[in-house]
Amino acid sequence: MKKKKTTKKSSRKSKIKKVSYINFLPINKMAEASLYFGFTPTKPLQITKDDVHKASSLKDAYTKNVSGLPWTFSQVFAEERIALLREYLEKNLSSLPQPVMLVHESDIIKERAKHTINLEVMGTNRSIAEAMLIKTAVSILKDNGYKDFTIEINSIGDKESMNKFSRELTNYYKKNLNSLSAHCRQNFKKDALCLLHCNECDPEGKLKEAAPTSISCLSDVSREHFKEVLEFIETMNIPYKINNNLVPDKKYCSGTIFEIKENLSDGKVGETLAVGFRYDGIAQKVGHKRDNPGVGIKIFLPKKAVVRKVSKVEKPVAFYIQLGDEAKHKSLEIIEMLKQEKIFVHHMLGRDKFGSQFAHVEKTKVPFVIIMGKKEFLENAVTVRENITRTQQSVPIHQLVEHIKKIKA
């Protein structure tokens, strides 16, 4: 028998290492960072007539007649939240490991003439949800050319907090009725909240400056939650300021609200690049049997003539596990570092316990686990463990990228 000749071409092919990938629903290249932070691409929301009707039932007519209302008074925000919660129910997303993290695109707010990236974290009321949204949004903005930001943030808290704030705000404006125009007095009869956004009644801002603030009315639980969110932002080294006038529509918003704004070279604050808020409690208001806590953010990016899509990332070699508050704070920085090198790792930052995170290691079938606990946090390192041999070693964080590249080779 004659031996088959091996061509140079085939021998070259045999030396090429086959790379496995995880496939996703195609997402705009502008939003690629969201994949590394654990968000799953979904199709754009389909808002039905029933969604629009339910959104209208949550709104009051006064919001259509008051100028200067924040973005979260826009009707489309209510419609999107209701459509999102409906799809969560219809697709049985509650059966998936919680929280569920989704990314989708839209161009619904036409007047902004922007392409919109929407990030959602559903199924948790913990502060890590806001932290993941803000970190991912900032990463997306940086990837798209923005460099300097400020976060304006506030909280209206839970139902107890908001009720207290409404009472105190109403009493305050009652004492100052003589300072209001006839138009503003009519709006006040509907809800004192709208006066925080009306420039007609308070052009110099003196009334607003002396008015009660929502954070001064927070319950103990809401105050602790807001404190945790601010701690996460401080860990990210992103400048922020509390904006007491950043008060959303209480009909479908709750808890934290925030805007990311660009800092211009002349020292002024530029346009709003992203806006986010919690919507705990809205599910039951529109007829769901159970509440489904969630928080979302809209990122506004310039539209591009050529749209590039991403539909896969290289299969991860490791599952990242974090234990303790300090480690959780550090985790977002580590994931960002890995993202910069296109290193994708599985993780569940929304979970706290080791067992609930480790249970997914076998499902993902990754060969390594990266662990960040209190000890590792103090040493500014991580523990890298091989699943088959159970051997492990401590790796300084600044050497983690190179270490992963070696074990992948």
Summarize this, please?
The protein is of the alpha/beta class.
**What order do the helices and strands follow?**
HEHEHHEEHEHHHHEEEHEEEHEHEHEEH
Low-confidence stretches: 6-17
Fraction of residues in β-strands: 15-25%
From the N-terminal CA to the C-terminal CA, the straight-line distance is 38 Å
Number of domains: 2
Main pleated-sheet profile = 8 strands, mixed
Q: What is the strand arrangement across the widest sheet?
A: 2-3-4-9-8-7-5-6
Number of helices: 14
Q: What is the percent of helical residues?
A: 25-40%
CATH fold type of the largest domain: BirA Bifunctional Protein, domain 2
Number of strands: 15
The gross shape turns out to be: globular
**The CATH homology group name of the largest domain:** Bira Bifunctional Protein, Domain 2
Mean pLDDT: 87
CATH class of the largest domain: Alpha Beta
Identify the CATH architecture of the largest domain: 2-Layer Sandwich
Category from helices, strands and their pairing? alpha/beta
Protein model, in words:
The chain has 409 residues and is of the alpha/beta class. The protein has two domains: 23-301, BirA Bifunctional Protein, domain 2 (2-Layer Sandwich), CATH 3.30.930.10; 316-408, Anticodon-binding domain (Rossmann fold). Helix content is 36%, strand content 22%. It is built from 14 helices and 15 strands. The strands form three sheets. The chain has an eight-stranded mixed sheet. Strands 12-11-13-14-15 form a five-stranded mixed sheet. Strands 1-10 form a two-stranded antiparallel sheet. Strand 11, helix 11 and strand 12 form a beta-alpha-beta unit. Helix 5 (128-143) packs parallel to helix 9 (220-235). The longest helix has 16 residues, at 75-90. It is globular and about 75 Å long. The model is unreliable at 6-17 (pLDDT under 50).
